Every structure is written in structure tokens, then in C-alpha cells.
């Protein structure tokens, strides 16, 4: 399987924040969920990938090409959707097509119109009259209408209702049915990533904490819940992270079935991605 994106030892230094040796890949035919709390470095990483800001060290390859040296070739094949629409509020959907067809050689008017019909987007309304969901759908239609091989999404489903989010997630799943396509999907809505992502890259304080298969996380990892007395008896090297709460302790374990066999009296639940993230951020370790 080829990698559509390869990020290696990426660094960016600001006075109050540093992105430190960030490395991960986005394989073709996959959706990679990019998670982390606010200020963790997600948007900085995406801006570096898009060459909107200059890296201090490291490398970014997209389709096997350097993202700076081959920027124009790369961006012809990328669709990008941010958490807000950046189209002028007085434009109509038809105006967007007139502009973007001059930018992208592969712009497809018929495909764009098909997405507008599918998303029930009015061509007659100006953008400031759209709901947030309509604005996001317009951004996605615009990103897809030039036949990109890669989508980069920065909070593209944030603030949308569950029905709209479900509709958009289906579009993303359709997109990667072509095994040469891929998606880098930064989102705070970990439930969306549990539905569609193949891999999860977790960044915290400018460092990649893990870059793993989503199935490994949700089917192997577990959350142990126990009182103080039981917790004190545990070998802390068996725990990835732990956190004390009002009812006792919660701890993350790497293999919940194995842990259950060793500690049959303890409650071990499946771990959701947001629980894993929370324990890594707030938890202690041996």
C-alpha cells in the first residue's frame, strides 16, 4: 500500500509553542483521523502540509513529491475543507464554479452540479443566506468537483447536526472506494472518526503520542474501573495511563482480554477514542 502523505520529523517553532518531530503517514485507500485537544498542533501540522507556513525542519511528501518543490502539481490533486466557509458571502454557488474552473485544470461542472443537487444547495441564494450545514456542503462540493486524489479536512463536520454529519461521512466513505484516494480528517468529534477512520494519529503538545489502527484502539484497548483498594494492588506497569475520579480510578490497558484473564474480578470496558485521548492527556503513568 502506497502512502499518499508522508510526514517525517516535522518541526515548527513559535515563541509559545513547538511542533516537535511529528511523523505519520496517510496510506492510499484510507481515512486517517487526526485528533488532539485545542492547541495540540493539528492545524499547524495541516498548514505545514499545505505549505501555508514554512517548516523549520523535517519533510512532507504528497504523492511522493516534496510539498514545497512540487506545490502546484500537488495542489491540483488536493481538496481542502476547513471548519468555516471562506467564500465571499455575496457569491452564489454558480460564482464559485466560475472562479474555481479557472484554477483547477480538472474542474468538472457536471460533477459540481451533481453534488449541488445531491446536497440540495440552491444556486440562486447568496452564501450569507445559507445555514452552516449548507455552507459546509458547498465547501465539500467545491473540494470534490475537480477530482482530487486527496482530501484534507480540518473540523469539516464541526457544528453540524447528526443528520448532515451522517450524509457527509457517507460522501467521504464513497470517496475512498477508489484505492488511490485518501483522506486526512482532523476532528474533535471522535464518534465520527470511530465510524469512518482506518487509522488514528493523536497529537498532544506538539508531539505525536500514537499513530495506530483504529481497530487496534477500540477492539484491543480497555478501560479498567475500580476502587482505590483494588487499584493499589495492581502492577502499574500493566497500565498505560490512569486517572483518579470521584468513584475511584480509571485506567487504560493495552489488551483488555488479557487483562480480564489476569484480573477477572475487575470491570474492563471497551475504550472509546475520546476516553483514550482523555487518559493520555490527564492521566498518570508508571
TrEMBL record:
What are the UniProt keywords, alphabetically? ATP-binding, Nucleotide-binding, Transport
Q: Which Pfam families does the entry link to?
A: ABC_tran
Ranges in a coiled coil: none
Q: Which residues form the ABC transporter domain?
A: 2-230
The cross-references to CDD domains, in alphabetical order and at most eight, read: ABC_DR_subfamily_A
* Molecular function in Gene Ontology: ATP binding; ATP hydrolysis activity
Respond yes or no to whether keyword Coiled coil is given for this record. Answer: no
User: What is this protein identified as?
Assistant: ABC transporter ATP-binding protein YtrB
> Coding gene?
ytrB_1
